[in-house]
Every structure is written in C-alpha cells, then in structure tokens.
Specification:
The complex is a heterodimer.
Chain A lengths: L1 E4 H15 L3 E5 L15 H5 L4 E3 L4 H13 L3 E5 L10 H8 L2 H4 L9 E6 L14 H5 L5 E3 L4 H13 L4 E6 L6 E4 L13 E4 L4 E5 L1 H16 L4 E5 L2 E3 L3 H11 L2 E8 L4 H13 L8 E5 L8 H7 L3 H13 L3
Parallel strand pairs in A: 2-3, 2-4, 4-5, 5-7, 6-7, 10-11, 10-13, 13-14
Antiparallel strand pairs in A: 1-8, 6-12, 9-11
Chain B lengths: L11 H26 L14 H10 L5 E4 L4 H7 L3 H9 L22 E4 L6 H14 L6 E6 L6 H12 L4 E7 L2 E2 L2 E2 H4 L16 E5 L3 H18 L3 E6 L17 H8 L3 H11 L5 H24 L15
Parallel strand pairs in B: 1-2, 1-3, 3-4, 4-8, 7-8
Antiparallel strand pairs in B: 5-6
Helix pairs in contact in B: 1-2, 1-3, 1-10, 1-11, 2-3, 2-8, 4-11, 5-6
The chains are: A alpha/beta, B alpha/beta.
Amino acid sequence: MSEMTYRDALNLALKEEMRRDPSIVVWGEDVALYEGSFKVTRGLLAEFGEERVLDTPISENTIVGVAVGAAMGGLRPIAELMTVNFALLAMDQIIDHMTKIRYMFGGQVNLPMVIRAPGGGGSQLAAQHSQSLETFFMHAPGMHVAYPATPADAKGLLKSAIRDNNPVMFLEHELLYNSKGDVPDDPEFLVPFGKCDVKREGTDITVVAYARMTVLALQAAEELAKEGIACEVVDLRTLSPLDADTFVASVKKTGRAVVVEECWKTCGLGAEIATRIYDGCFDSLRAPVRRVSGLDVPMPYSRQLEKLCIPRVEDIVAAVKETVAAKY
Amino acid sequence: MKEMSLRAILPDHELVRMYEQMVLCREFEESCAEQYTKGHITGFLHLYSGQEAVAVGSTHALRKDDYILSAYREHAQAIVRGAEPRRVMAELFGKATGICKGKGGSMHLFDPDLAFMGGYAIVGGQFPIAVGLAFASKFRKEGRVAACFFGDGAVNQGTFHESLNWARLWELPVLFVCENNAYGIGTSVERASALADIHKRTCGYDIPSVRVDGMDVMAIHDAVKWGAEWVRQQNRPYLIEALTYRFRGHSMADPGKYRSAAEVELWKARDPLPAFAIRLIEEGIVTQAELGAIKQEAIAIVQEAVTFAEESPWPEDGAVWEDIYV
C-alpha cells in the first residue's frame, strides 16, 4: 500500500497500463505538453513520447470520434475531455456512434476505448462548468460508466476501464483530485466493473452514493454514529453496469434507504436506484426511499447560492434522520 | 483531345468487371425499390442509381486493405467492395442472415474483413472515424488509406471542418471523397453552401483537392488512384469532389419535386452505365452480345439475392440483447 492522491492514483494507472500495452494512446486538449488541465496526464509525454501522447485541437466531437476510429483500427485510445461539460459537444460521437457501432454492425467490431472526463460542481465555475452529467451516460446502452470515490478505486477502476473491450465513460470528480488514501502497489490490482463496494457497514439504514457523494455520505455516517444511527454506505463505483444486487441486499437488511446524487433530481440516477430498490425489496422497506439531490437549477456562481445546489453532509444527515424516524 | 485508351490504364478483365459491377449495383438498387413497394424492405431506403461510377471507379483504384467508410447511401459501396449481394439484401429485409444480422439495415452495412468500415446515418458522423482509422494505420505502419465517402450535404457539418483540420495537423492518410449529387435531400448545394465549389473549401486547411466528373468511371478511377497513392506516400489528406447525380429521390419517400424534369433528363442522358459501355465497345473490349449477357447475369444475381432474403429466417428474439457489450 502507498498513500497517494486520487490524481496520482489515476496518473499511475495510466502509466502502468501504457507500459504494459503499447497499443494504448492518449489524446485530448492540453494533455501532452501542458500535462493536463488537472495534471492527471503529468509525465506521460516525457515517458511515452509524442507518438502516444498527443495534444488535440479544441474539437470535442472529433476527439471522441477519432478515438472511435482508432479503436476500430486496433488501438486502445484514451481520450480526455477537459471537463465533462464539453462532452455535450461530443454527444453525437458518444451516443450516436461509440455506443451504437457494435450493435448496429451486428457485433462485428469492438471499441476498446476510454473517455476520461473530470466533472462535478463546487468550485464556483458557474452554470457551464459545474455540471454533473452522469445520468446522461447511464441512460444509453452500449458503454460502461465508472465514477470512483477513492484513490484506490480510481486506480483500480481506470485500469479495468483501459482493459475493457467495451467503450467506457470514466468520470473523475474535480474536488477529489487532491483527496488522499491508500492504494495497492500491485500493478495487477483491478477493481471490477458492476460491483458496488460497501464502504461502511451498518444496520439501521442504507445510504447509496457514488464519487464525491460517497465521501460526504461517509462523513454523515460518522456523525450519525455519534447519535446511535448505524448507516451502511454503499458506493456504486460503476453506474453502468449498475450493481443493484448489492444495494438491494443491503436495503433488505436495513429496511431503509437514502440515495445521494450530485446530479439534478428530475430523472436523475437516484430515481433509477429508488425504483430498483422498490422492484427488488419493496416488502423489506419500512419507509419510502429518499433522495438527496442537486437542485434542479443551472449552477449559480455565487458561493452563497452554489452551496445550496450540491448535497452537503448536513443534508444527508437530515434525510437519514427523517427516514429512520418515519413511522409507517 | 482523344481520351487515353482504357487498355492503357487497366487490363480488359478488370474493365469488364467494373462494368459488371456498375450493372449489378443498378439492378440491385432497382430491385430494392421494388421490394420496398412490396413492403419487404421497410424503414429508410436511399438508392444509389446514377452514382455507380463513383463507388466502382474508387474501389478499383484503392488497395484491398484500404479502409472505406460511407454514409447511408452505401449498398453499392459495400457490394463493389465484395459484400455478397444476398447478404446485403437479407440485411435490408431485416433477416438473421444479413451482413449485420439484421440489426443495421440499409444505412448500416459493415464488414471488417473487407475493410468496409460502415455506413453511417448521422450526416458527417464518419469523418472523425475515418481520421481515427487513418491514425491507427499510421501508428501501426500499415500503409492503409482511409477513404471517406460523403455527400455534399455533409460539408456544412462541424465534423467535416474538424476532421480536415485534424487530418492535416496530424498528417494522416485520409482520402476524402465528396459524392456531390447536387442535393442534400431537397436543398441544392447552392442553397446550402456559401461556396458551392466544395473542393475549394479545403484551402483553409492546406489540403489539396480536385473536382472530377462523377459520371465517368475512369475519371473517378484515375483521380482516386492518383489521390490515394499521394495520400499514402505523403501521409497527408487529399479531397476529391465527384460531380454526380442520383436518378431517384433522396429516399423512397421523396417524390423529388424540387428538381425539374429537364434537369433530371439532362443528367440521365449522362448515365454512367451506357457511357462506359460505349467506350468498352469502341475499344473492342466487349461485344454488344456480351453486354446483354452481363445484364442478364446481374439480374440473376439480384433475383437469387431476393429469394435468399425472402427465405432467410428472422432473427431470434434473444438476439435483441446480443452485441451491445463484448
């Protein structure tokens, strides 16, 4: 084990995989010479050279589309979108092409490619740079979607994403890049897709979360423990495939659930998870599933307003208390 | 000036093969129209009749391992590349024996063994994919060119400009071939493009280009032959604009009221099939009797394809969940 940041864990995953497999190439806006806007690609150009690490023009749709073509042509491209907000410019290549090519061509071709995209709010970047678009990607069949919460998961999931023969949308939370944690040193350490991680065990209520929301849920659980409420925190890790079995099993045990999502509430992933819980263990529920969600507003700039829009620890604490206290 | 003799360019058997393929494509498309009116082919159906010279001339000028990508009017591109007409027809019928198991249909033919890398139905969607294939070819030192076919309507999509810029910037072997058939559905080039001379639009990206007669199969052949070899040697993109015309509407749903009958007749008088046939006869490469036999053979192939498609099984219900993920 080594302690490192989420950023360094991602960086190490890229380096280890690129050393292992010479067909891996990396491109995106400012990923090479500038070493990435968030420095996740630091040192790649120096180690792997300009044939494998390439800066691109500001052409997001084509950044993804060229990766689709390169994957068809036998490479394993990793395309970085500077932030997930710019994925909206690339939705044609992501949704119309990347996720459909295998199916509409009758399974004759695989697209082993990864799109890395930092996202999430909380840095006062206003409406166009603070979005949480994870639900958009979950909605479309044909790709996997990962969104790690810890440095260890960041490394293990990114390595699995790179080795996956399916296209993967790999989301990274901008506010987690500096977070620290223990990461296994084994270069074969992989975190499987489609497996939630129970990050804290408890008996009173299940809190389902992902990425930065998992970090907040764990903080909330710590506070709630002081008041005698034992939360079980289930971290989704991959949003697609969605491991409903694990969170449903947890809810069967606890009888109550809160889902924490950073995205907008309306048609957000929390609605999907709540439905899976109702489908999977309605009889076990002792209270309705509650959602703690991003507000359904474009993100405001002012710190005073922005903080209202993203779930906070106190919001999770309040939702858990209300759910636990509810009598039906 | 007298044109160069065909025999100076290609051997007799290949010239005859090219004509056979043009006739086969025409018969195939006209049969598709019939099958559509019978309700055997459904969904969108965009026919290639009139544009055969482009697919045939290009394919014979490319290396067999060069990538070909196209849009949604691509039956002929696939067949000329080597796809079996019966499996293409079965795909159009939605049958399990189709080239894509009935999952793609008319607009999404694909066969990686033929380096036929797909028909794409979002206008301009194939540009970045062609650039990516060219990158892979260069990275792996394969010497393959990515030949990207598209219509005149696609040149106003952002991907066209992004991909031209990218292919030149990264020095990638992409051959862009615009099949300018004068209309994007019902909107003429002049009504859609500020600069209607599409080949000139590459200036902004420092990419050389040429405009050729898209009704002349040998003109296409020669332009693609030269262009593809230049691309291969220079590792740089090149663009060919082929002036052509579709004899039918945009799709089967289009009665074509935006074109005058006189205009259509003018272009039909330049039909690439008889034009090529006359040259073949003039040079003594085929006889009139052989031309008749070629047509009968094409009709037989297409009839057999229809029978095969009719008799083929539908996909099993379980197939709906297959091929999404590896």
